[in-house]
Design brief:
- The protein is of the alpha/beta class.
- The longest helix is centred in the last third of the chain and has 19 residues.
- The protein is elongated and about 70 Å long.
- Belongs to the D-isomer specific 2-hydroxyacid dehydrogenase family.
- Keywords: NAD, Oxidoreductase.
Length: 319
């Protein structure tokens, strides 16, 4: 009989994460993304003590009330955990962890990529090339926006927001930010604090969201988009739930927004197909953390947290 702790890998993960899970644990590794019901059935059947979870494992209060007694920890390999009822899970005696540091740099990289592509009309340029570009454009045609010298407004100045600020400053942008509280000067690194979202929006030539969803509700309403300066640019790598997508589409169609860059949507993967008709929108399929290095690090972080809890130590990244 194995003396290793039994765990469940409830989502498809990179090969390096599978190899480590199987080396260090008695790991059950189905080659698919499990639902909450499927995962908890396996927990009950195999005496599983820890779950490396995924977005389909949407733990509700009802699930938490019926947790199998073997379960001790649910480890999210992402920074976000709004797909589960954390309070009910913890009340049931199960530790919840996340991976707040692993995806910071790659998410900020992709946010900067969205910003650059939105400002420089990359969707339209790519379409021209794929159509077999054969006609020169006039001197005043297909013009984008110069990034350097523009003012970037960041909403949410946590790890990813600060990493985005550093990248933007490297491109010669002025950075303003709104956060629940002002950062210490050493963390601001030249970024300027703005007391309220309402005060930030009219000053943000480019606005980038870097705060968790769930608690914030719909932040970018029709009124909020109207407060951005005409010709502004909107970037979202945070949560699709933060945005009124009807209002965003109208702002892009009307020209009030010059462009937008999105990695997240309200309904994923079944995103609103009206977005495909907007040439001034640059999109990616929620892939900000999708590099070999980062996905491995995210999985390893979840395994580190599981190992800590099952060995009787404190979780490294408790929620």
């Amino acid at each position: 009989m194995s003396t290793k702790h039994p765990i469940l890998i409830a989502r498809r993960v990179p090969p390096a994460v599978v190899a480590r899970a199987e080396a260090e644990f008695d790991a059950l590794v189905p080659d698919l993304d499990l639902s909450a019901e499927e995962a908890l059935a396996l927990v009950a059947a195999h005496g599983i003590q820890g779950i490396l979870t995924g977005p389909r494992v949407r733990i509700t209060a009802a699930h938490a009330a019926a947790f199998p007694p073997s379960l001790r920890v649910i480890a999210n390999p992402t920074a976000g955990y709004d797909h589960m009822d954390v309070a009910a899970t913890k009340a049931a005696g199960v530790v919840v962890t996340n991976a707040p540091d692993a995806l910071t740099d790659c998410t900020a990289d992709l946010a900067m990529m969205l910003l650059l592509n939105a400002c420089r009309r990359a969707s339209e340029s790519a379409a021209i090339m794929r159509a077999g570009w054969r006609e020169n454009f006039g001197f005043a045609a297909n013009l984008g926006l110069k990034v350097s010298g523009r003012t970037l407004g960041i909403v949410g100045m946590g790890r990813i927001g600060r990493a985005m600020a550093r990248r933007a400053q490297g491109f010669g942008m002025r950075v303003l930010y709104h956060n629940r509280r002002r950062l210490a000067p050493e963390l601001e690194q030249g970024a300027e604090f703005v007391e309220s979202l309402e005060a930030l929006l009219p000053r943000a030539q480019v606005l980038s969201l870097h705060l968790p969803g769930g608690e914030a509700g719909t932040l970018m309403t029709r009124q909020a988009f109207a407060m951005l300066p005409p010709g502004g640019v909107f970037i979202n790598t945070a949560r699709g739930s933060l945005v009124d997508e009807d209002a965003l589409i109208d702002a892009l169609r009307s020209g009030h927004l010059f462009a937008a860059g999105l990695d997240v949507f309200r309904n994923e993967p079944a995103f609103d197909l009206r977005f495909n008709d907007l040439p001034n929108l640059f999109m990616t399929p929620h892939c900000a953390s999708a590099t070999v290095e980062t996905r491995d690090a995210m999985g390893f972080c979840a395994l580190d947290n599981i190992a800590a809890v099952l060995s009787g130590r404190e979780a490294l990244d408790p929620v």
